[in-house]
From TrEMBL:
<dbReference type="InterPro" id="IPR029063">
    <property type="entry name" value="SAM-dependent_MTases_sf"/>
</dbReference>
<protein>
    <submittedName>
        <fullName>Unannotated protein</fullName>
    </submittedName>
</protein>
<dbReference type="GO" id="GO:0032259">
    <property type="term" value="P:methylation"/>
</dbReference>
<keyword id="KW-0949">S-adenosyl-L-methionine</keyword>
<dbReference type="GO" id="GO:0008171">
    <property type="term" value="F:O-methyltransferase activity"/>
</dbReference>
<dbReference type="Pfam" id="PF01596">
    <property type="entry name" value="Methyltransf_3"/>
</dbReference>
<dbReference type="InterPro" id="IPR002935">
    <property type="entry name" value="SAM_O-MeTrfase"/>
</dbReference>
<keyword id="KW-0808">Transferase</keyword>
<keyword id="KW-0489">Methyltransferase</keyword>
Amino acid sequence: MIRDFEDLLESVDQGFRALRPGGILLIDSALGGGKVADPTQRDPITISRRETIKSIKETDDRWEPMLLPLGEGVLVATKLN
């Protein structure tokens, strides 16, 4: 489970290297209490969360992602081959 939001994309890459195909990566508080959806929020952690979610969902074909609206949001990504 990833909770280091300062360098989130690097943490996702490390998780990818550590997991076998079918392994699951969890990012807790992925939505930052609604800050990610608010375009006026420009603090570094919110920007990091926003960029990471976009990367995993839209441009990174290494993952099968699912964003769950639980608590502050949980991003669940299954590693593909």
